Amino acid sequence: MGYPPEIWTEDEGEASAWLVRGDSAPDVTYDSSGNRVRYLARGHSTGGIYGLYHWEFAGPESGPGAHFHKTLTESFYVLSGIVTIFDGNGWLKCHAGDFVHVPAGGYHGFRNQDGPASMLLHFAPGAPREPYFERLAREDLDAMSPQEYFDFMSEHDNYWAV
Predict the structure, then answer these.
(1) Total domains in the fold of the chain
(2) 145 Cα distance to chain centroid
(3) What secondary structure letter does DSSP report for 157?
(4) Three-state DSSP class for 106?
(5) Is 117 exposed, middle or buried (0-12, 13-18, 19+ CB in 10 A)?
(6) What is the spatial order of strands in the sheet that 28-29 belongs to?
(7) CA-CA distances (angstroms) from residue 132 to 25, 67, 158?
(8) Domain assignment present for 17
(9) How does DSSP classify residue 25?
(10) DSSP state string for 27-60
């Protein structure tokens, strides 16, 4: 495999880096769990190449069950604590430094069964995951009709394991 086609076609570079400080406020806080998400690189900021998020589990067990995506890959890099990740075959206890990559179509899920934890969550290509995270934080999914729930999940490329 070689290098992909050029993204930058100019002869000179430019100053275009951005910084997200480690102590910046979360972009989303989930009232039900206390989980916090910081947007490190939004899909629209990377030209749709990827999205990167810092996910902090506050303590109470939370996280999605087994599901898959049709349009994107998802990767997890555990920073602290223990994140239990479904790899399509079973739930794995992942510790700081562990990395899990899930290609499109691969069943996966994640949760914090062992208290507070944090991870980097990477999506490629850079789909607009922010509206999904934000709506999950403000809305009771149990209050949705089955069709509303299906439509919301489909809009955000989430398909649950049967």
Answers:
(1) 1
(2) 25
(3) T
(4) coil
(5) buried
(6) 28-29, 36-41, 51-57, 117-124, 73-80, 99-102
(7) 19, 15, 10
(8) no
(9) P
(10) SEE-TTT--EEEEEE-GGGGTTS-EEEEEEE-SS
The two structure tokens encoding residue 12: 């000179």
Count Cα neighbours of 74 within 13 Å in the Cβ-side half-sphere. Answer: 21
Q: Which domain holds residue 66?
A: 28-160
For 102, phi then psi, to 5°, come to -125, 110
Q: Is the pTM of this model over 0.85?
A: yes
Does 117 reside within a domain?
A: yes
Q: In this predicted model, what pLDDT tens digit does every residue of 48-95 receive, in sequence order? A: 999 999 999 998 999 999 999 999 999 999 999 999 999 999 999 999
CA distance 8 to 13: 8
Q: What is the pLDDT of residues 95-143, one digit of tens each?
A: 999 999 999 999 999 999 999 999 999 999 999 999 999 999 988 888 9
Six-digit token string for 32: 């039900």
What is the CATH classification number for the domain harbouring 129? Answer: 2.60.120.10
